[in-house]
Design a protein that fits this description.
By secondary structure, this protein is mostly helical. The protein has one domain. The chain has helices spanning 31-63, 77-103, 109-120, 126-131. Helix 1 (31-63) packs antiparallel against helix 2. The model has no long low-confidence stretch (mean pLDDT 85).
């Protein structure tokens, strides 16, 4: 069980949180547990959207802008799109790991989610809403 106010781990017979000194409310899922579950689901959904975008970029880079001797496009477009696609897929992997970590209440998931939230602030409007 976890504290409803600060999210600190609690023992079975504990009546007051040792971290924030608030009284422990028994029964039902706490507000913190509900919010962490919802946030984990949002991070997984964000990862799915990034995977779709990264795969589309990979397909475009390897079909339309593939290297050929008869190319009518600038030579830098293929490596540029490949680099952006790899970056988007790396962000998707971080979001997916953060989402599953939050769902499993892992201690390392909160700092990772904060880092991913900072990166998500650049993705207007969905990433900005998730990052905030």
């Amino acid at each position: 069980m976890f504290c409803n106010f600060c999210g600190n781990a609690l023992y079975e017979n504990q009546t007051v949180c040792s971290k924030c000194n608030n009284a422990i409310v028994r029964g039902g899922a706490s507000r913190v547990e509900h919010h962490l579950k919802l946030l984990g689901i949002f991070w997984i959904a964000d990862a799915v959207l990034h995977v779709i975008g990264g795969c589309v970029l990979l397909i475009v880079a390897n079909t339309i802008f593939a290297r050929s001797s008869e190319a009518e496009h600038p030579a830098f477009l293929h490596p540029l799109l490949m680099g952006i696609a790899i970056l988007v897929l790396a962000i998707a992997a971080g979001s997916l790991i953060a989402g599953f970590g939050l769902l499993e209440r892992q201690a390392w998931a909160r700092p990772l989610a904060l880092v991913m939230a900072f990166l998500a602030l650049l993705n207007v409007p969905l990433g900005t809403a998730l990052g905030v």
